[in-house]
Amino acid sequence: MQCYNLVGKVAIITGASRGIGKEIAIQMAACGAKISLVARNQKKLDVVQETINHAGGEAKSVIGDVSNFESFSEIVSQTINKWRQVDILVNNAGITQDNIIIRMKEDEWDSVMDINLKGCFNGIKAVTRQMMKNKGGRIINITSVIGQIGNAGQSNYSASKAGIIGLTKSTAKELGSRNITINAVAPGYILTEMTALLDDDVKETFKTSIPLGRLGKPKDVANLVCFLASEDASYITGQTFNVDGGMVM
Ligand code: NDP
């Protein structure tokens, strides 16, 4: 496994119980970082914790809801109590609640905005003071190609992911002088539980719009996130990087 040097670093990764977040956690732990694994449900999170600790890494499950600022502050407090610092935040937790606009219910709009967009705001706000004290930090927000190109039936999701790109740029401008870098990663179609519901013929159609001719794997995203979290990426901030097989260019 390719490893960037994250030895001595402490990372909070939201949505770490499955899919992309789980893979980011496993790879970052392999690079030497200590990981707070965040999700709402304990069971799957504990399996990831066990996998990492069994492989010789250090991880701790922290139950929390990113859409709630108090809950995110508690995630940060628990991380600092255990490891005394936070160097890396990966805002990865996200959901979809698809519907066409005329049928979309207010709560479908609200829950997607609260978890996907406000969740990133909560995370950035909750770690910033600690990172300023540490004189540096890395924040990586997981957006989506859908935030760039839109998608019928996903106006809430698309708006939340486009919002993350704006949030990334503004906070990168605010916190650059504090040596805190903030970047976004925009995956295309990645094979996880979120996309597992798609019919095979839909997946085949997607493939025709992807120059590299395949759907992505969580590892494809995790590779880039580990780089952005490392010292090697210290002169990169405010950017959005696509991991989409060339789907958007
Ligand atoms: P999954 O549905 O597989 O996993 C989502 C994770 O987020 C789970 O660990 C879930 O755990 C957690 N989560 C959801 N809501 C909350 C919450 N309120 N607080 C804390 N944790 C929460 O998603 P993926 O791995 O597929 O996607 C990860 C990210 O990548 C998302 O932001 C998604 O939008 C983005 N993305 C995914 C793409 C894909 O093709 N898969 C493409 C583009 C972007 P729990 O339910 O226990 O809380």
Descriptive notes:
The protein is globular and about 45 Å long. It has 249 residues and is of the alpha/beta class. Strands 3-2-1-4-5-6-7 form a seven-stranded parallel beta sheet, with helices on both faces. The protein has nine helices and seven strands. The structure holds NADPH dihydro-nicotinamide-adenine-dinucleotide phosphate. NADPH dihydro-nicotinamide-adenine-dinucleotide phosphate (NDP) binds next to helix 1, strand 2 and helix 7.
Structure in a nutshell:
The protein is of the alpha/beta class and 249 residues long.
Mean pLDDT: 96
Strand order of the largest sheet: 3-2-1-4-5-6-7
β-strand amount: 15-25%
Distance between the termini: 28 Å
- Please state the structural category: alpha/beta
Oligomeric organization of the protein chains: single chain
The total count of helices amounts to 9
Q: Which ligands occur here? A: NADPH dihydro-nicotinamide-adenine-dinucleotide phosphate
Report the C-alpha radius of gyration, rounded.
17 Å
- The SSE order reads EHEHEHEHEHHEHHHE
The helical percent reads 40-55%
Largest sheet: 7 strands, parallel
Shape: globular
- Which runs of at least 5 residues are low in confidence (pLDDT < 50)? none
Number of strands: 7
Task: Summarize the helices and strands and which ones pair or pack.
Blueprint: E1 10-14, H1 19-30, E2 34-39, H2 42-54, E3 58-63, H3 69-83, E4 88-91, H4 106-133, E5 137-142, H5 146-149, H6 155-175, E6 180-187, H7 193-196, H8 200-208, H9 218-229, E7 240-243
Parallel strand pairs: 1-2, 1-4, 2-3, 4-5, 5-6, 6-7
The structure holds NADPH dihydro-nicotinamide-adenine-dinucleotide phosphate.
